[in-house]
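testing teh design pipeline on a random one, pls ignore if ur not involved
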């Protein structure tokens, strides 16, 4: 298929809103059933050849939940061989939530606080998933396109991840913000005040440069690649970025942004994305005082005899 096919935000905004909430329902299960890991690395989804997976979780029993975006099903699989699935098409968020709760109960899996769960950081955060009959739009073709774009971006981010030999997160898909990203870490601890929320304190307990891709939202209605440094060092937005990219104010900090359509139009879209990611990373890491060259890993290789 086409590399970086078009996926304008306005063309599937209603479907995106529905699938985002589907993902948050399953994400709440993952949050409750997975062993805790540093920086919340246990919580996001990973990609499969057909969609997204929670990965195995729980011990009594061990199970996984997968989105299949080719057949448009949600699957619950238990390691003893039991399995259940139901279609994603034609369901409201309330219906989807009910099916997940019932599916888990049928296998004797504790769904924790899922019954009363609500969206995280979305406009309808005050309404339980179980009462959301508003979001019920599911365009199967658009969801397949989303999955195809996500898969291609995943591979590009994996290549970028290999160019750094320090501590790096997996490339993973965040269900709360619906973006895909990887994060590079310094050893420098960040002293957050106690008033900072615990999610932020854990996610950003070290200096980071994060690079990713999101599909757009009402405030930024276009898909784009992005990068940010946290805490943001002084003068970051004065650093140059490749043609087509720019620094965008985001509250008191800045995002480096490369619109997806700009990358699509380039003669070499993959090289364009990698050039952007490297420039934004070096801008943040250099300003923050990291030893950039010491952590360089050209072509994913650290062995000096194989470079």
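output:
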């Amino acid at each position: 298929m086409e590399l970086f096919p078009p996926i304008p935000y306005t063309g599937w905004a209603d479907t995106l809103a529905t699938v985002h909430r589907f993902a948050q329902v399953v994400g709440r299960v993952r949050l409750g059933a997975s062993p805790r890991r540093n920086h919340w690395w246990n919580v996001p989804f990973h990609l499969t050849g057909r969609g997204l997976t929670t990965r195995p979780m729980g011990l009594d029993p061990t199970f996984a939940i997968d989105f299949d975006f080719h057949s448009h099903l949600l699957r619950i699989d238990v390691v003893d061989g039991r399995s259940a699935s139901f279609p994603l098409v034609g369901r409201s968020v309330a219906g989807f939530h009910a099916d997940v709760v019932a599916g888990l109960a049928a296998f004797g899996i504790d769904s924790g606080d899922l019954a009363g769960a609500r969206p995280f950081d979305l406009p309808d955060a005050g309404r339980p998933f179980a009462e959301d009959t508003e979001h019920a739009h599911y365009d199967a073709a658009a969801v397949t396109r989303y999955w195809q774009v996500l898969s291609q971006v995943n591979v590009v981010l994996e290549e970028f991840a290999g160019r750094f030999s320090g501590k790096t997160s997996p490339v993973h898909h965040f269900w709360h913000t619906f973006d895909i990203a990887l994060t590079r870490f310094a050893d420098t601890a960040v002293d957050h005040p106690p008033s900072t929320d615990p999610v932020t304190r854990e996610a950003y307990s070290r200096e980071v440069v994060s690079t990713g891709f999101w599909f757009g939202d009402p405030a930024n209605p276009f898909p784009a690649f992005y990068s940010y440094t946290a805490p943001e060092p002084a003068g970051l937005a004065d650093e140059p970025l490749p043609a087509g990219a720019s620094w965008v104010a985001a509250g008191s900090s800045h995002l480096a942004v490369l619109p997806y359509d700009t990358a699509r139009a380039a003669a070499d879209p993959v090289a364009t994305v990698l050039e952007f990611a490297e420039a934004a990373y070096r801008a943040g890491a250099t300003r923050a005082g990291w030893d950039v060259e010491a952590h360089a890993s050209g072509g994913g290789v650290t062995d000096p005899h194989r470079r």
